[in-house]
Amino acid sequence: MKENSFVLWAVFLAAAFLVASMDCATQNALPKLHPSEKRALKEIARKLGKRDWDFSVDPCSGGGNFTVASRPKGSESQLNCTCSLPLSNHSSSSSSCHVTILLLKGENLTGVLPPELSQLPYLEQLDLSRSVLNGTVPTEWSTMKLRILSFMGNKLSGPFPMALTKITTLNNLSLEANNFYGPIPSEIGNLVNLQQIHLSSNNFNGELPATLTKLTNLTELRISGNNFSGRIPDFLKKLTKLEKLQMQGCLMKGPIPSGISQLTRLTDLRISDLRGNASTFPDLRGMESMNKLILRNCSIHGTIPPYIGEMKKLKQLDLSFNNLSGEIPSSSQNFANVDFIFLIGNMLTGDIPSWVLTRSKIVDISYNNFTVGSGPTQCSEGGSINTVEIYASQADKMPNVPSCLKRNFPCTSNGKYRYALNINCGGTDIDINGTKFEADTDPKGASMLYINRDQNWAFSSSGNFMDNAVSADTYIVTNKSKLTVPHSELYMSARLSALSLTYYGLCMYPGNYTVRLHFAEIVFSGDNTYTSLGERLFNVFIQGKLVLEEFNIAKSAGGPGKAVIKNFTTTVTNYTLEIRLYWAGRGTTAIPDRGVYGPLISAISVTPNFDPPPEEPTTGRRVPLLLIVGVSVSAFLVTLLAVIICWRRSKRSKSMYKGDIIRWNNNSSQTTVIEACVLQQRGTLLELVDPSLGQEYPKEEALLMLNVALLCTNASPTLRPNMSQVISLLEGQAPLQPLLSKLSISSTSANSMDPMRVTRNFWQISSNESQSLSLNELCTDSSESLTETIPLNHSGTYQ
Ligand SMILES: *[C@@H]1O[C@H](CO)[C@@H](O)[C@H](O)[C@H]1NC(C)=O
Ligand SMILES: *[C@@H]1O[C@H](CO)[C@@H](O)[C@H](O)[C@H]1NC(C)=O
Ligand SMILES: *[C@@H]1O[C@H](CO)[C@@H](O)[C@H](O)[C@H]1NC(C)=O
Ligand SMILES: *[C@@H]1O[C@H](CO)[C@@H](O)[C@H](O)[C@H]1NC(C)=O
Ligand SMILES: *[C@@H]1O[C@H](CO)[C@@H](O)[C@H](O)[C@H]1NC(C)=O
Ligand SMILES: *[C@@H]1O[C@H](CO)[C@@H](O)[C@H](O)[C@H]1NC(C)=O
Ligand SMILES: *[C@@H]1O[C@H](CO)[C@@H](O)[C@H](O)[C@H]1NC(C)=O
Ligand SMILES: *[C@@H]1O[C@H](CO)[C@@H](O)[C@H](O)[C@H]1NC(C)=O
Ligand SMILES: *[C@@H]1O[C@H](CO)[C@@H](O)[C@H](O)[C@H]1NC(C)=O
Ligand SMILES: *[C@@H]1O[C@H](CO)[C@@H](O)[C@H](O)[C@H]1NC(C)=O
Ligand SMILES: *[C@@H]1O[C@H](CO)[C@@H](O)[C@H](O)[C@H]1NC(C)=O
Ligand SMILES: *[C@@H]1O[C@H](CO)[C@@H](O)[C@H](O)[C@H]1NC(C)=O
């Protein structure tokens, strides 16, 4: 028995040995993570707050959640190892693997950067982007041999981490969208292998260190959204391999240094919102690979150089808010391939090239000084071409220019004024406490004008969201869950803009108003995930005056999902109220996703600081004769001219012109006799001529006809010519001058009244009403009917 049991025991031991050695052999075939790295990894998991790693499985095995194929959208979890063959067949401890890549993206990790990461000596690539890690980079990291390191979108803070300046193996480094501050240390020059460095959306300040010039292999430098000081250094020209240079909203001073001309490999150059001195257009000749060129709000004056139109790879061009003058260069036909063109807010002159008006891709030329008449014939809404306020002051007095093309977007109301304005930006019609907030649901906004149906408000929206890999940007955002703020319906949806968004209150009665701007941050979250780290900063101007600078909705409201109302007092003088929101390149642009930035607004309400006149009865109100005549005869002018044209055409075979020479389109017509009289007095009556005729019409005859028409509109019957006089005047058989010199209406009306005001109040009438007075009644001496008054309602429209 004893021997038997001994034998059994021996067999058991042998079997056990066999199993053990088999296990050993398996281990040699599939080496495991080096034990010291496994220990470090456990500590790393603890400090990062990474809880789903299962250490009962080898981290290099592909299991244990170290590499997970399907993660929530936007996140990624991956660990790669390099494994060496065992040094000896008898020593299992030498068979080992090492972590080389660790990607934990979008994981919402809430911990800190573990010093133990430096105990992964083979680690080359570390990506901890889009979490909520805080603290800073441990000094232990200075021994690491990383090539690629990203902390993009975290809560890391402190001065630029010096440990990083020792990791000289680094090729790519991103500290984007954290809370780092202070100057960039000169030691950054140690990182000679750097190809990409992203420092955007932090609070770095001071001047850029000259040691940056040691980074001669740098292809990408992004420093937008910081608080740097000083001028853009000319030494950047030494970084001749640069392909992407982004410095938007980083508070540096211009001008753009001339040395930039040496960076001929640039494909992506974005500079915006420079302070300091004006400069001419930087020399970008020879930059044939240019793909995205943004020089916005950089105080650039002079002309757009023609070679821009020859950059064959150009896809996006933004030269907005400079002082560029001169014409759009003729070489610009090549812009056909450019997807987005923004030339907003310059002083460009000359004719608008025809390719602009026929384009199907985005082009925004709003706020310029183009030749009057070279723009569209109507306020083209929606679409892809924005032509708001393209004519500067030249068109101010021209009655037949579409209103949206004119400076300050004047009112075209037929005398109807508003004393309040309520818009539910990005949302539908809603009633809040008895006030109707009007719907604003047009989904577009890269380059568009929207005018509401009643033509009493409008908005102009410019800019596309860059780098978002989305073919169609959305300009309206909707909150997914219900907000717990009063009147939450106002805040559930909002309008967004990538660059500039201007709301116009049109036809606002002059006076002082309270403007309330309603905001709630509904894109960023208030939880402890990376989506809470977004920082939206923008500026607000009311009537051209800066009222909010670097406004941060969430900060102002005490968190995302909360409402904040900013109220302002403003004065409307010219019937138009202008509220502009502008993105000055500040804040984050990649949280929760790339391309998330720019102004957001939930609602606008504007109330008068005066008592609006009470609603008046709609009949029986008497108004001065002069104004009635003004209204009646302006419509009459149409009739008269039509008669004259027909008459001349039938009389003479050699008719020199076709159709109307004056634009009497009911939608855009704003001509009043009074305005005509003002022009007549100035000797510029020809401004009434339809600009689309260009110079191709008989000026003398046009002038003659206009003058005769004007005479026929005279308030005093004794001064009006009769029909036979009209005919001889038009035939050139009677002199005009004696009659004109008696013209009295012009002097009284032009001097005693604000012509703009008269226009707004008394101009537009429908074609039906024009028939109420006949040709004979106006152009003969016996027209006593003119002394009758015609009832007008309070707002000046006919009943
Ligand atoms: C992987 O993670 C998920 C979710 O955290 C967890 O349910 C699962 O048990 C983990 N798998 C392993 C092998 O640890
Ligand atoms: C890292 O691991 C993943 C998943 O196992 C694999 O798809 C990928 O190719 C590996 N990457 C490298 C550089 O080895
Ligand atoms: C390990 O064993 C293999 C054969 O099993 C042999 O070819 C190899 O040389 C051995 N290595 C060492 C270091 O002894
Ligand atoms: C992190 O949080 C965001 C919301 O901010 C969420 O969309 C994402 O799925 C989360 N990531 C993981 C890995 O849970
Ligand atoms: C990091 O965040 C934690 C929890 O929010 C906090 O207790 C800790 O003080 C923070 N650490 C640093 C360095 O900010
Ligand atoms: C690192 O930078 C290079 C050069 O810009 C780039 O081609 C590469 O894709 C980057 N790698 C990563 C992981 O970002
Ligand atoms: C720059 O890159 C080239 C090749 O791309 C390499 O040969 C050279 O060593 C790099 N220079 C530095 C300073 O890293
Ligand atoms: C607009 O252009 C005209 C010439 O076309 C010029 O006389 C005028 O000064 C310009 N106005 C502005 C504001 O630049
Ligand atoms: C709604 O209007 C009433 C009456 O004017 C007022 O008492 C009440 O405070 C208003 N409610 C809100 C939420 O403004
Ligand atoms: C409007 O406001 C301005 C500036 O606050 C003030 O000077 C002016 O008197 C106000 N006008 C009226 C009519 O109240
Ligand atoms: C306007 O704002 C001021 C302070 O911001 C506040 O005291 C006032 O009550 C507000 N007025 C209205 C009418 O909301
Ligand atoms: C109002 O219009 C007049 C005449 O067009 C112009 O001179 C003035 O600058 C305008 N004012 C404002 C505030 O737009």
TrEMBL record:
Residues 145-288 form the Disease resistance R13L4/SHOC-2-like LRR domain. The chain crosses the membrane at residues 625-647. Keywords: ATP-binding, Glycoprotein, Kinase, Leucine-rich repeat, Membrane, Nucleotide-binding, Phosphoprotein, Receptor, Repeat, Signal, Transferase, Transmembrane, Transmembrane helix. Residues 1-21 form the signal peptide. It comes from Carex littledalei. One of its GO terms (molecular function) is protein serine/threonine kinase activity. It is an enzyme of class 2 (transferase). This is non-specific serine/threonine protein kinase. It comes from the Eukaryota. Its EC number is 2.7.11.1. Gene3D superfamilies: Galactose-binding lectin, Ribonuclease Inhibitor, Transferase(Phosphotransferase) domain 1. Residues 420-604 form the Malectin domain.
